[in-house]
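Bug #77: duplicate submission created two jobs. Keeping one. Sequence:
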Amino acid sequence: MAKQFDVIVIGAGPGGYIAAIRAAQLGLAVACVDAWTNAAGKPAPGGTCTNVGCIPSKALLQSSEHYEQLNHHFAEHGITAKGVSLDLATLIGRKDTVVKQNNEGILYLFKKNKVSFFHGTGSLAAKTDFGWSVKVAGKTEEDLEGRHVIIATGSSPRELPGLPFDEELVLSNDGALRIPAVPKKLGIVGAGVIGLEMGSVWRRLGAEVTVLEAMPDFLGAVDRDVAKEAQKALVKQGLDIQTGVRIGEVKTSAKGVNVQYTDASGAEQKLAVNHLIVSIGRVPNTQGLGADVVGLKLDERGFVAVDEDCRSNLANVWAVGDVVRGPMLAHKAEEEGVAVAERIAGQHGHVNFDTIPWVIYTSPEVAWVGKTEQALKAEGRDYKAGSFPFMANGRARALGDTTGFVKILADAKTDEVLGVHIVGPMASELIAEAVTIMEFRGAAEDIARICHAHPTLSEAVKEAALAVDKRTLNL
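Kept job's structure:
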């Protein structure tokens, strides 16, 4: 007889494992199914984010930043280091340890919250009198039944047509995290979050990095002022960023990868690199899910079709995270997971897509929430803008990192904050204040009237809010 649960979650990435834990907290009997396996053959819940995405990339960014500081910036502080060397195996090993700790943390949380975990691939099999039959294919086969099913199967990297990932020469985000030796030359197709973060890691460690971006503008979805500042800083650091590029023939050989492309001027170019990272977006993981078996509706791009509450076309079948519409962000998946668990329990889950923050963890960091200035102009909305540079912030000067600024956009009449855009040190942390203000539909004046500790980077947020009313105090 099949094991029965109130909720079965397929996928243990940020959306899935959080949905499972929240549902269990609400008193529901919960199972979570996930197939991810680590190098030792053991369960590795956490999805792309924990295993080959957010967590390991941040570990490498931190390590490479230490290396960069030691080699190029410690002398400014009167610290002289000689004989500095890089042990790449140890650096990669530390990243693997951080990932393992997160995997084990999720398994602990499942045990703590009494979530039944099944290691294997989950698929919808049939509608039953109880609810839905879910098959688990792994080392052992399992038959489960759930009154509700939450699909949280995530996404996979998109390949260039005719150029499959081999994770040795042609790399996805997975292979980009474990290049065995610092390459002399590294190519990256796609100047998005993953491309820029991985480019920053390997550039700091000594690689010559060329980034090829198809779009004419650098970071086209980002506020123009912020994108220009970020591009200027990254180019100064040594990244060769080319926009408006059209990729042609790509060939691999024993020596590396040769890329033919047309640059923005229309000229034919060639690039020879040791490895090529391809970061051109992601596709939803719906193959093998059993969608065709049970009649689960997918949209034209392969995403599970859901309404605003994450309900699919099938009764009591839900979907969250990268496998549905909306930004492919771990924290968006988490919010949807919590909201669906609460809706199943009869509560009113909440996800506000207008206040989901975005972050790029380069140096300087880039973070934003809400509307860009170009979007407001396109809408014809009257707005006010205020900005404040980190150059004028005491804590930034003390840190020795004064690149960038904070920019706040507010409604011209009501002063409601419509967007906040930050490029500079710790932007990933500073953006949380903006998200909070916007979630409560607060005004720029609200930020300006809040006491911020001195000296802190957050004072730049306050000063930008003051600048909306043209009354900055430290500029």
